[in-house]
Amino acid sequence: MVTTLLDARRARHIAEQVPDPELPMLTLADLGVLRGVEVTDDGTVVARLTPTYSGCPAMAEMRAGVAARLREAGYSRVEIRTELDPPWSSDWITPAGRRKLAEHGIAPPGAAPRSAGGPVPLVLSPTRHTVPCPRCGSADTEETSRFAATSCKALWRCRACREPFEYVKEI
Amino acid sequence: MSDDHVYMTLAEGHEDDTRWAYGTGFEDPLHGVDTTVPEGVDPAELAALCVALGDDALVQAQRLAEWTTRAPELEEEVALANIGLDLLGQARLLYSRAGQADGTGRAEDAYAYFRDAADFRNVRLAELPNGDFAFSIVRMLLLSSWRLAHFQQLASHPDPVLSAIAAKGVKELAYHRQYAAEWSVRLGDGTEESHRRMRAALEQTAPYLGELFTAHDARDEVVAVLRQVTEAAGLPMPVYRPLPGAGRHGEHTEHLAPLLTELQGVARAHPEATW
Ligand SMILES: [Zn+2]
């Protein structure tokens, strides 16, 4: 039993260090897609992963990455499970993950919209939240595109330092 | 951030032979999910619903992919491709669910690549040609509003897999609808020409609305969104004229077969290949 607990902790630590294929400055733990690591009675390591977006093409790569790292670390029986419920939220990006994003010039997300239960309201007013520039800190920024190289990011531009930057969307 | 690193990682060999680009023979997107159909849920009905919703998404994704290299600006091309990718992801999950529920164990490829037009159950609005940008935007506004309302209800479906797929999709569809709504206002309230094209797009899509509401009655939600958007855009509400036929019964326009020919061509020419 003690061995299992220690094993679970070590296995979790190994899985947590696997980098995200699309945001390689973040680990899967930073991104909040690693939902848990357990060791079953027969010694199988079970790691649970959740996709960020339904179409996230990196999901298979993440699964393979976690399985490969765990096998390298000596775990012969590894099982990766997909966990769809609850759906991933950008709120799950850890404080360390947010710091790393900012250090790499990517603005971290604000708080994700909360579901009030009824129909999702459509807001057409141009009032927008501000996203401070990750390079110079200026609040004088604007969105150039809601969608960027990956589903999880938007494109923004800083009017002060004139640099474009990416921004992880709230979801 | 070292971009080289990202691509190097992609090129590295993995024993599991994972690939990134879309093709065939991918690992099951529901890999490791408990796929027992709960008691009280009719497996055949569940499978049929998943196929219909998967077909709506796959056909839309294919139309959106056709905008690649043709969109008005690079940013819009990226947006349309990303929205298509979300829908493709939803389709993959739904097909996978269908194959487990109907007992055939069919994988996603069997649904996407090896069924003919008459077997597809998507609503016809999804399969109409892209037309101009205004038409594609109005179509996206209607379909995303409708699907968003439907998925919100499905988020409490007794099948936990379908409800999870739907709950996840709701978040994505809210972004799609937002994109389409903002462009609708920009074009409707833009130049004389863009206004004229938006009006035409609303008229052209109106006959297909009835089919959406028969498939899933989200009339109130869709009409409320349309009213909000057309008011902000200075556009008239479309006059709804019903059109006979229904994609949900496999009755399609002449536009679906050529779309599928392009989508399925490589997979059918090389049925054993994975890429
Ligand atoms: Zn700046």
Detail the topology: elements first, then pairings.
The complex is a heterodimer of chains A (171) and B (275).
Chain A: H1 2-16, H2 28-31, E1 34-39, E2 45-49, H3 59-72, E3 78-82, H4 95-103, E4 106-107, E5 141-145, E6 153-158, E7 164-168
Parallel strand pairs in A: 2-3, 4-7
Antiparallel strand pairs in A: 1-2, 5-6, 6-7
Chain B: H1 3-11, H2 43-65, H3 74-101, H4 108-113, H5 124-127, H6 133-154, H7 160-188, H8 192-205, H9 209-215, H10 219-233, H11 256-269
The structure holds zinc ion.
Zinc ion is lined by residues 133, 135-136, 138, 158, 160-161, 163 of chain A.
Explain how this protein is built.
The complex is a heterodimer of chains A (171) and B (275). Chain A is of the alpha/beta class. Chain A has 2 domains: 2-82, GMP Synthetase, Chain A, domain 3, CATH 3.30.300; 105-109 and 128-171, no CATH class. Helix content of chain A is 25%, strand content 20%. The longest helix of chain A is centred in the N-terminal third of the chain and has 15 residues, at 2-16. In chain B, helix 2 packs antiparallel against helix 3 and helix 3 (74-101) packs antiparallel against helix 7. Chain B starts with a helix and ends in a 6-residue tail after the last helix. Chain B has helices at 3-11, 43-65, 74-101, 108-113, 124-127, 133-154, 160-188, 192-205, 209-215, 219-233, 256-269. Chain B has one domain (39-269): Ferritin, CATH 1.20.1260.10. Chain B has 275 residues and is mainly alpha-helical. Chains A and B meet through helix 3 and strand 3 of A and helix 1, helix 3, helix 6, helix 7 and helix 10 of B.
Please summarize what this structure is.
Chain A is α/β, with parallel strands linked by helices. Chain A has helices at residues 2-16, 28-31, 59-72, 95-103, and strands at residues 34-39, 45-49, 78-82, 106-107, 141-145, 153-158, 164-168.
